[in-house]
Amino acid sequence: MRKIKEFLIEKLILICGLASIFFVGLIFIFLLKEGLAVFKSVSAFAFLGGSKWYPISEPPQLGILPLILGSLVVTVGAAIISIPIGVGCAVYIAEIAPLKIKEVLKAGIELLAAIPSVVLGFIGMITLVPLVKKVFHLPTGLTALSGSIMLAFMAMPTIVSIAEDALYSVPKNYKEGAFALGATHWQTIYRVILPAASRGILAAIMLGIGRVIGETMAVMMITGNAAVIPKSILVPVRTLTATIAAEMGEAVVGSEHYFALFAIGIVLFVISFAINVTADLCLHERI
Amino acid sequence: MANIRVDNLDLWYGSFQALKRVNAVFGEKRITAVIGPSGCGKSTLLRVFNRMNDLVEGVRTTGSVFVDAEDILVPHTNLVRLRKKIGMVFQRPNPFPLSIYENIVFGERIHSRRISRDTLDDIVEASLKSVLLWEELKDKRHMPALRLSLEQKQRLCIARLLAVKPDILLMDEPCSALDPQATAKIEELMRELKNNYTIIIVTHSMQQAARISDETGFMLLGELIEFDKTENIFTRPKDRRTEDYITGRYG
Fold first, then answer.
1. Rg for chain B (alpha carbons), in Å?
2. Edge-to-edge strands of the sheet including B86-89?
3. In principle, which of A50, B66, B114, B205 could form an S-S bond with B5, CB 3.0–4.6 Å?
């Protein structure tokens, strides 16, 4: 009796474990099946490298280069803003801040992570967009820059908390060793602690960027959604994610447009997958 | 030159008094061992000398510690200069996760402004030679230091220390992570280093103290019970508690 119970419970847990993989597999198969269909009418090269995205013209032009570049510009902008601030914040929390400030800061960062992206987008629309318009004298404030700034806020909690973990787990005896050789606090941080935590910090950055690339709602609200190849950071852009979200509702099921949106999904999947794997390698590979 | 005189030193961690009225003189160019059971304050005492206790929150001291007639416990002490002069070797070898070469030149990099490649090369060679690692490692200088054996790591930590040209070496149970053979080698190295440096070693092992030190202090519950020539401590201790400890009644 007891044996049967053990057996059943074991199998039940096994099923739970396998279920997640099973569903991921299903999603992936579905994505591939729907997405790859687009390549019957357009070559992979024309799809990825085409500079015109007019999905409902006749015949449809399905080049996603403007969308890829849109995502890239917004992401790079967000990375440039969030990496220095995020890593700096992590160093401050892990190494410098007195205990009380540390707790307040950590709670603040967690709170930032808890703000839904639509709310961030909304706030950005009301405050940031007019500001960008005014500062740079633009016809519209709905630009890649606005998106980058807003997304930097979303990447920061990830970067800060993972980088802080990495810095905190640097063995204390490295720090003692450096101090005992007469190093100042800053010398210790940047010559010993940062290099020792570099892998974890890299992983933090990767995961932060992964979050930015996958983000949809906030960017859709504040980047202007113009599917043209961006020539600067001060023009409206459209990202891969925003394209899917905005157009999936109106695409006719089974049309080339519909398949193209799934293919965009594959591109996004590949990008996030690559980023996550890189982050994972950073975290787990030992020297 | 390089001697340490401790004058009525008291130290508290919060409300716990870890050192009580410690008085001692650590002579130059000799090895002084500090022994005693765990928690007796011997490591704390060592860490007073290079102000490592400053890293712990809530530490208070009264009394004085003179290094070459200069009181190092006063607030405006130049800690960088103090720690250059008084180096420390830790219980667990703690080379930085850098190359062997970079570990050794670490001190030079942080302490001097203009650095030439040649100077660095010379420092690496001289330091590795003085810890007898040069022959073994001269072709592997750019290998990550974390790949060395424990004993090599500890030697490297000593080499890294000698590269900043200290006068005094503090050793906090430097052999406790090593096997007996490696311990013997490090002890041999210490005897060699004694010719040029003042060495203070904290150790769990009475045998080690007896083997290598010229003078020994015995500590118990934060007090320095007895401080004398090593042979006296181990053959005719004056205090009953010292006798009990070295004959194995504490421990």
1. 18
2. B70-71, B59-67, B4-13, B16-26, B223-229, B215-220, B31-35, B198-202, B168-172, B86-89
3. B66
Show which of residues 156-175 on chain B sit within 8 Å of chain A, judged by CB atoms.
157, 160-161, 164
CB contact under 8 A, B106 and A181: yes
Task: Say what the alpha-carbon torsion angle A149, A145, A151, A248 is, to the nearest 10 degrees.
Answer: 150
**H or E segment to which residue B66 belongs:** strand B59-67
DSSP classification of residue A192: I
Smallest CA-to-CA distance from B170 within B195, B202, B194, B196 is with: B202
Taking the CA of residue B97 and the nearest CA in chain A, the distance in Å comes to 6
The rounded percent of chain B whose pLDDT value lies above 70 is 98
Cβ-nearest to A182 among B90, B98, B111 = B111
Alpha carbons B206 and B122: distance in angstroms, whole number:
38
* Structural domain spans, chain A: 2-40, 53-284
Burial of B179 (0-12, 13-18, 19+ CB in 10 A): exposed
Distance spanning both ends of chain B, measured CA to CA: 36
**A53, two tokens:** 């995205």
What are the tens digits of pLDDT across the range B20-49? 999 999 888 899 999 988 888 899 999 999
Output the CATH code of domain A53-284. Answer: 1.10.3720.10
Q: Are B26 and B4 in contact (CB under 8 A)?
A: yes
Could you read off the pLDDT of A79-111 as tens digits, one per residue? 999 999 999 999 999 999 988 999 999 999 999
Does domain B4-246 sit in CATH 3.40.50.300? yes
Kindly list the distances between the CA atom of residue A204 and the CA atoms of A209, A275, A282, in Å, as whole numbers in the listed order.
9, 11, 9
Query: For residues B34 and B214, is the Cβ–Cβ distance under 8 A?
Result: no
- Under 8 Å between Cβ of A241 and A268: yes
A287 pLDDT exceeds 80? no
Residue whose structure tokens are 């318009």 = A133
A48-74: average pLDDT? 88
- What's the pTM? 0.83
Residues of B with Cβ-Cβ distance to A201 under 8 angstroms: none
pLDDT class for A231, splitting at 50, 70, 90? confident
**Domain-wise residue ranges, chain B:** 4-246
A181, HSE (Cβ side, Cα atoms, 13 Å): 31
